[in-house]
Amino acid sequence: MLPIDDLRGLRVLVTGASSGIGAAAARALAGCGAHVALHYRQGGASARDLASEIAQGGGTAIAVPGDFLIAPGPGEAVRGAVEGLGGLDCLINNAGAIERTPVAEADEATVDAVFDLNVRAVLRTVRAARPHLTQSGRASIINLGSIAGRNGGAPGSAIYAAAKASVHSLTRSMAKELAQEGIRVNAIAPGVIRTPFHDRTPPEALEAMRKTIPLGRLGRPEDCAWAFVFLASPVMSGYITGQILDINGGQLMP
Q1: Pure H helices in 155-218
Q2: Cα distances (angstroms) measured from residue 184 to each of 70, 138, 208
Q3: In contact, 62 and 79? CB cutoff 8 Å
Q4: Would strands 90-93 and 139-144 be described as parallel, antiparallel, or unpaired?
Q5: Strand pairing partners for 219?
Q6: What is the dihedral of CA 130, 135, 140, 143, to 10 degrees?
Q7: Using CA atoms in the order 232, 174, 16, 42, what is the torsion angle rounded to 10 degrees?
Q8: Catalytic residue among 160, 163, 227, 237, which?
Q9: Dihedral sign, CA of 10, 53, 245, 75?
Q10: Which of 39, 138, 164, 206 has the fewest CB atoms in 10 Å of its CB?
Q11: Separation CA 31–CA 25 (nearest Å)
């Protein structure tokens, strides 16, 4: 049996790629020969450093800016990726953020900010990328959901959980609509992953979370990275679309 080598030359835009899960996904994809555009909003230096790291390892990567809190931002990132890579075969909608606010205290600005970054930006990026993906012949979209979108999240994260549940639903809807254009659409739903976000979480809270995980540890960005590789590969997942892949150490088994 021949080794799987179908990601070589695959042109991928990873949004929110300057750190955490996005950066790990970009490293894994580039290690498999994909050409990667690393989107950033504020982490420009980190994205450029990662691009240099990938290039020094023999890979191809560029850094592209885009403020996803405003409507033109996603289109700007897609244009940068297409111009820099010569087209687009895979879109990874990883950019997102959580704002912990009790439901009763969530004002309109908070709700808009969470949904703008976690939901509307996904729609805007897909809308900008679609014309390029339809020309690919091996196109896919991979969205970042969350265990919170499955179980409602921890106290204070209801708005974020609702946004991620929307991403899960959009994934299935887009899979149905874009299948006839040759575009597969899937998502991953991580559990508790040790990213820079959790640097602000009290150690006792993280330990309480760890105790609820059958595998006995918190996740690492690398635990998610290879799922993106799998879902981007036409050989490994060419007949998979509309699915939500849970990566949570057994914390939730839907």
Answers
A1: 158-178, 203-210
A2: 27, 9, 37
A3: no
A4: parallel
A5: 193
A6: -20
A7: 150
A8: 160
A9: negative
A10: 206
A11: 10
Per the CB < 8 A criterion, the answer to whether 34 and 11 are in contact is yes
Taking the CA atoms of residue 83, residue 67, residue 193 and residue 252 in that order, the dihedral angle to the nearest 10 degrees is -100
In the annotation, is 160 catalytic? Answer: yes
DSSP state of 146: -
Question: Does residue 118 contact residue 124 with C-beta atoms inside 8 Å?
Answer: no
From first to last of its 254 residues, what are the pLDDT tens digits of the chain?
556 789 999 999 999 999 999 999 999 999 999 999 999 998 899 999 999 999 999 999 999 999 999 999 999 999 999 999 999 999 999 998 777 788 878 889 999 999 999 999 999 999 999 999 999 999 999 999 999 999 998 888 899 999 999 999 999 999 999 999 999 999 999 999 988 776 777 788 889 889 999 999 999 999 999 999 999 999 999 999 999 999 999 999 98
Q: What pTM did the predictor assign? A: 0.95
What the chain holds in terms of domains, given with CATH numbers, is: 11-246 (3.40.50.720)
Q: Give the H or E element holding residue 12.
A: strand 11-14
Among residues 86, 109, 89, the alpha carbon closest in space to that of 99 is found at 109
State which amino acid sits at residue 114. V
Question: What whole-number distance in Å separates Cα of residue 248 and Cα of residue 223?
Answer: 9
What's the length of the chain? Answer: 254
Per-residue tokens: 114: 């969470």
Q: Which two tokens stand for residue 187?
A: 């998502």
Tokens representing residue 101 in the block: 């606010």
